[in-house]
Specification:
This protein has eleven helices and eleven strands. The chain is an alpha+beta fold and 381 residues long. It has a domain of 195 residues: Ribosomal Protein S5, domain 2. Strands 1, 2, 3, 4, 5, 6 and 7 form a seven-stranded mixed β-sheet that branches. Strands 9-10-8-11 form a four-stranded antiparallel β-sheet. Helix 8 packs antiparallel against helix 9 and helix 10 packs antiparallel against helix 11. The longest helix is centred in the C-terminal third of the chain and has 25 residues. The radius of gyration is 21 Å and the shape is globular. Bound molecules: alpha-D-galactopyranose (GLA). Alpha-D-galactopyranose binds next to helix 5.
């Protein structure tokens, strides 16, 4: 049974009546371009074949009733007339926040009964929350026939995180969950909100490896990185680090702290690498992609300081197997979570074997491996 069928079955079991519709939105993996989105820069993620499915029916009243199968089978109910933050069921704030933002744009939105289920590993940096938000938006847009496009949906999802949930994230995760394209990654310009498909080479898959490092202090460290980047942009009097070149940064090195300099160097060089990987993918130049992904990992490790020793170990183990035949790096926000490899299919089993043989010994942890394909986003037509 696929995820949509499961959601529909949960709805029937929970509410003793069939649902009207089932909507779905994917999680994502980022090929390259991390911590660039909130600097108005470039990212290159793909939507993956793991996501969130929501079975739904309209209601006549102004209530939203949500059953979350994967959150201890809890049920949350609230009124559209008074959407409050819920201190007890944190998961329900994604629903509350997203609908609160949607209501600002489309006051005609009405009530609904929902059953939610998903298979994006939670807290692993594969955007289970963005996939949840975009699935909610797709569900309400379908139930109430709202003229909501993917870019608007992504912005509303991000607003829900920023203004309601309290996470200062960028736009990447919501945008790719809404707009991803099958068999492609996507170069997103996070300032212009435009995108370009980037073909995944034929015979290649994503091997996504969860380090299973417990992510701690993620929000505070993430927000701190963001503040450091904004401080450097302010120092130069520009809107965002997107507007600076490495030469400009170097010329001011003496007037910046070492940390500020390295944070900005990561962002500026990562933007260049991301654009270069787009060209490498278009030209099927795997060796160049491989080098750029490794350079990205090292920059996130040394300059941006968001990797962990366990993630570094995974990248080393994978790189030894794939050499220049594929690429590997940490992916997402960091501080734990996943590393990704874009690898030829014949190396998937050797990568898994190397991880089983070496990772636990080196880290004391057991990794989970997900072999993924690039899929279509919820709002992509
Ligand atoms: C998290 C955020 C994104 C992005 C990445 C890092 O996934 O939600 O907006 O900043 O971290 O690239």
């Amino acid at each position: 049974m696929n995820l949509k069928q499961q959601a529909s079955q949960h709805f029937q079991q929970q509410f003793s009546t069939p649902c009207d519709i089932v909507c779905y939105a994917p999680g994502r993996v980022n090929v390259i371009g991390d911590h660039t989105d909130y600097n108005d820069g470039f990212v290159l993620p793909a939507a993956i074949n793991y996501g969130t499915a929501i079975a739904a029916s309209k209601r006549d009243d102004n209530q939203v009733l949500v059953y979350a199968h994967d959150c201890d089978q809890q049920t949350s109910q609230f009124s559209l007339d008074d959407i409050q933050f819920d201190q007890n069921m944190m998961w329900s704030n994604y629903v509350r926040g997203t609908i609160a933002m949607l209501q600002n744009k489309f006051p005609e939105v009405g009530g609904a009964t929902l059953a939610v289920t998903g298979n994006v590993p939670q807290g692993a940096g594969l955007s289970s929350s963005a996939s949840f938000e975009i699935a909610i938006l797709k569900t309400f847009a379908s139930l109430y026939e709202l003229p909501l496009d993917g870019i608007q949906a992504a912005l509303l999802g991000q607003q829900a995180e920023n203004q309601f949930v309290g996470c200062n994230c960028g736009i990447m995760d919501q945008l790719i969950s809404a707009m991803g394209q099958e068999s492609n990654a996507m170069l997103l310009d996070c300032r212009a909100l435009t995108f370009e498909d980037a073909p995944i080479p034929a015979g290649f898959s994503f091997v996504i490896v969860n380090s299973n490092v417990k992510r701690g202090l993620v929000d505070s460290e993430y927000n701190l990185r963001r503040e450091q980047c904004e401080a450097v942009a302010k120092h130069f009097g520009v809107k965002a680090l997107r507007d600076l070149t490495l030469e400009q940064l170097q010329s001011e090195q003496a007037n910046l702290s070492d940390v500020e300099y390295r944070r900005a160097r990561h962002v500026i060089s990562e933007n260049d690498r991301t654009l270069a990987v787009l060209e490498a993918l278009k030209g099927n130049d795997i060796a160049t992609m491989s080098e750029l992904m490794m350079a990205s990992h090292m920059s996130l490790k040394d300059d941006f300081e968001v990797t962990t020793p366990q993630m570094d170990a995974l990248v080393e183990i994978i790189a030894e197997v794939i050499g220049q035949q594929g690429g590997t790096r940490m992916t997402g926000g960091g501080f734990g979570g996943c590393v990704v490899a874009l690898a030829p299919d014949e190396l998937v089993e050797p990568i898994k074997a190397a991880i089983s043989a070496q990772y636990e010994q080196r880290s004391g942890l057991v990794a989970n491996v997900y072999v993924c394909t690039a899929e279509q986003g919820a709002f992509r037509v």
